Amino acid sequence: MSEIFDKFTKNARLILTEAQRVALDMNSSITTEAILLAIIEMPNTLSHDILKEYSVNFDQIKMLISIESKKYNKGKKISDHSKSVLKEAFRIASDLGHYNVDCEHILMALLSDKTFESYKLI
Q1: With 90 as the cut, is the pLDDT of residue 88 above it?
Q2: Confidence tier at 2 by pLDDT (50, 70, 90)
Q3: What is the number of domains present in the chain?
Q4: How far is CA 1 from CA 9, 18, 30, 89, in A?
Q5: Which residue stretches of 1-122 are H helix?
Q6: Euclidean distance between CA atoms 18 and 117, whole angstroms
Q7: Which site among 44, 76, 86, 105 is 20 to 30 Å from 9 CA-CA?
Q8: For residue 6, with 0-12 CB atoms within 10 Å meaning exposed, 13-18 middle and 19 or more buried, which class applies?
Q9: Distance from C-alpha of 63 to C-alpha of 25, rounded to nearest angstrom
């Protein structure tokens, strides 16, 4: 399993680590919302700057999540949608001819499916 994450850049791995922390704070599995919040919290990346340019910020997304007050997947470590996001990020990176998955690939994957909560929040 660790060889899979060798394909992630340092920042992309940091985002996944931060998403895990966010999920723990929300008492949930790692959801697309947790990954989105982690990207927002990762300064000095293009994905962070894109979200900032569109006035997407941590407090705003956190508030929207709390208003939704959904029951999160508590039985799994990572949600099925989040697994799909990571697979899509690999596909996007590959399609672009990139060897590694970076934050921007993850952001594009988060916004690639209208059924993902991350898509609905933005």
Answers
A1: yes
A2: low
A3: 1
A4: 16, 19, 17, 16
A5: 2-5, 10-25, 32-40, 46-53, 58-68, 80-95, 103-110, 117-121
A6: 18
A7: 76
A8: exposed
A9: 14
3 state SS of 48: helix
Question: How far is the C-alpha of 111 from the C-alpha of 115, rounded, in Å?
Answer: 9
Range with lowest mean pLDDT among 3-7, 23-27, 43-47, 116-120:
3-7
Amino acid found at 86: L
What residues contact 54, with CB distance under 8 A and at least 6 apart? Answer: 122
How many residues are there in the chain? 122
Residue 18's CATH number: 1.10.1780.10
DSSP string, 53-70: HTT--HHHHHHHHHHHTP
- Are 27 and 16 in contact, with CB atoms under 8 Å apart? no
Place of tokens 């609905």: 120
